[in-house]
Structures are given as structure tokens and as C-alpha cells.
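pinning this so it doesn't scroll away 📌
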Amino acid sequence: MAKVAVLLVTADFLASDFIVDNELPPLLAAAAKDGLVIIPIIVSASRFANTEGLAQFQSVNPPSRPLSGMTKNEQEELLVKVSEAIEDALGR
């Protein structure tokens, strides 16, 4: 079983029936039951902060500061933070 799930959040991701109906429920259940660590990355503007179930998870970057609006250097710094968060979740 996975220990970490990285979610690349966009408006299309949140609007996808497949994601909402098939992908998110088992991830949210595993987070609640088994301690799965969910790491959202806000890729582009979305309603992440208003999405029940997901808004409880701390995203790597604030919803007001999506990856798409960052400079290349800021994006790379964010991705380093993501890798560190994954390592922390895996206990390394």
C-alpha cells in the first residue's frame, strides 16, 4: 500500500467526475484509516480551499500562489519542498 499520495491540483482535476468518484474516495479513506500522507500541490487556480475532503490537507504551496504563476526558480524550490515532504513522510 502507498504511504504518500501527491495530488497535482487544478480546476480540471477538481471537476473530474472520475477523480471525484474513483480516485479521491480511496485516498481519503486511506488517509483517515491507514495514515496515508496526502501532499497537494496547487498547479493552477482552483477551488481547492473550498473543496470538502481536500481542504483539510496542507498544500505545499498556498492556493493563492499556484505553480503556474511562479518563476522557474520558485517552481524548482517548491519541488525541492515536495521531495523533502515525501522523504519526511517515508521516515527518511
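📌 and the second one:
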Amino acid sequence: MKKYKIGMFGGKFMPFHKGHYYCLETASKECDKVYLILFYGGLQESRVRQKDDYLKVEERINHLKNITNMFDNVELALIDVSNLIKEDGTEDWDAETPLVRKVVGNKLDAVYSSEIGYDPYFKRAYPEATHRIVDPNREKYPISGTKIRNMKNIKEREKWII
């Protein structure tokens, strides 16, 4: 029996890498159903969008469709956040919350991430859900999207991307 009924794992996935896969796989094992949410159109995306084809929205959507097909209980959802940028240029996560609720409803049991720093937001946005922090020190997969985007060596980059 799974520990949680409904789980959610969201991100920009620029790109979707082995650490993301590990988090999604964990969520899939622990939840009856997992929503994998791609947030696209934000400030970070506009800054790096032209850099590499694999960062373009269409490529990420196709890639995530292939990833979700690997799991029987994972559903991909897309949320455009391009209109949710604050005046200071940061993204307004609180404005994203109602958009996420349209996807996951009000019976969310677990929210997955690898970031301890997301805890205050998740507690505020999804008080009914447990924040499942997977590999927060990145011991299993010592990588991040930022590190991958900054890699000059394509072969090095490709070894981390799923």
C-alpha cells in the first residue's frame, strides 16, 4: 500500500535531470497518483530560452511526456506562469498556487522537492500536504539545472540529463 494518495512534483525542469527523475520515481513509489507539473514562461526561462534547444518549452514538454509514460501513476500538467512575474522580476509563487490547485485539487497529500528552502511556501500553500524532501544534500545525484546549463562540455551535460 502506498503512503500517500495524491502527490505533486513541480518545476521548470531546465533540463529534467537525474536528480529530478529520482524525486519523481520516489513520488511514484510513495503515491497512488502524482502530478508532474511543468511551470513554463517565467523569467528564468526567458533569460536562457535561446541558449539551447533542449531548454525550449516544446522540447521540455515532449521530453516530460516521454518521462511520464514510464510511470503508470504520473500525469503531466502544464502551467503558464509568464503573467505571474512581480515588479522586482521574481516569480510570484503565491499567485501560482490557485493554478496548481486547479490541477491537484484540495486533497493533496505530499509535495515533492529537493529544496529545504521551499518548506515555508509549501506549508502556506498546501497546509494539508507533507513536504517530502528527497536527497536535499544532492548526495545521490550531485547536480542541478543551473550546473547543467553552465556546463560547456556537451558530453558532460548529457550524462546528467534523462
